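Board work, copied verbatim: TnsA endonuclease N-terminal domain-containing protein
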Amino acid sequence: MITIRGKLTNLKKSPYGEEKYDSTLEREYMVELERDHAVAKWTKKHNIRIPYKFLGFARYYIPDFLVEYRDGAKEIHETKGLPLLLWLSTKLKRETAIDFCCRNGWKYKLITKGREAFYKRI
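↓ predict structure ↓
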């Protein structure tokens, strides 16, 4: 899998005006968030660390995005491409994040583009 890392600048809905991305899927999704009229603000710099256990070891899951909508609703969004969607750790993180969101009155959303994101070259 090709990993593209970088930074988008001149962002209007990020409180920081710029955000780093760790994959092409994240970069594409950041552009979508900027264009979504329902989104008031979003960031990757949210300081959310959700504890979970993996094979008996204590770990922390840091979600990709915290998104706030114009109606005040908040959501955690996670971008995942193949093969990460199939990993046990991804399943455990998702379950833990859903529970975290329920306790906080938020929603959890998994963003994926499957084979397109996995095989795309830029």
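Residues 35 and 78 are 18 Å apart (CA to CA).
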